[in-house]
Amino acid sequence: MAPLQIIVTGKSSITHAPERGTLSFSVKGTGHEQEKVAKEVATSSINLQHWIKSTFDPLANGSEPPLVNFSSTSIRTWTKSTDRHDQPVSNPHHASISFKAVFRDFAKLNHAIEELLAYPKVEIDGLNWTLTDETGRRLASDARKLALRDAIQQAEDYSEVIGRDVAVAEIADNGASPYRAQRHMMAASYGSQSGEDPLPLDLTPQDIDVESNVSVTFRAE
Question: Domain of life here (predicted)?
């Protein structure tokens, strides 16, 4: 009987609730005096850091703090003296300091966002839902195993029809990362309509998909 190869792609996907919420935001300023703009942004940033650290410090009973990590990610100053039509602008000087806050407590995360939306000079850039490294590695391992089992099941289905036994000859990981975090971008305002009181924020954590994709070659005998 002539040799035969069966090549299939096994796939799997595991859904898991997020364990961390990473909030990205920036303190920005603009004006006609460069030194004044820089000082205002720096002062607002210092006040903001004090508020974040004092509000989300570890609890007195020794419980884990709601904030996992808080850091500054970038500092920028620049000058743009004309607009897109090459006309002079009244506020050519700009400054920006960006921050990242990683929360394990999503109720506290919601509170932080509500406060930041009203904080002077602050723009919220985005919110990223993730897993811990330990959970991510464990689920990635489970997803790879499930993908291989899926490939084996496909090959066995074909072998049943053609009447041959199959054995694995080659396994090729397709190289795609099995970890896909959902990202929820946010706007700086959240009122339902202009002039109305803002609605409560609905920041439902987005589930995380951990996926695997593997190509498997079987030898049919």
Answer: Eukaryota
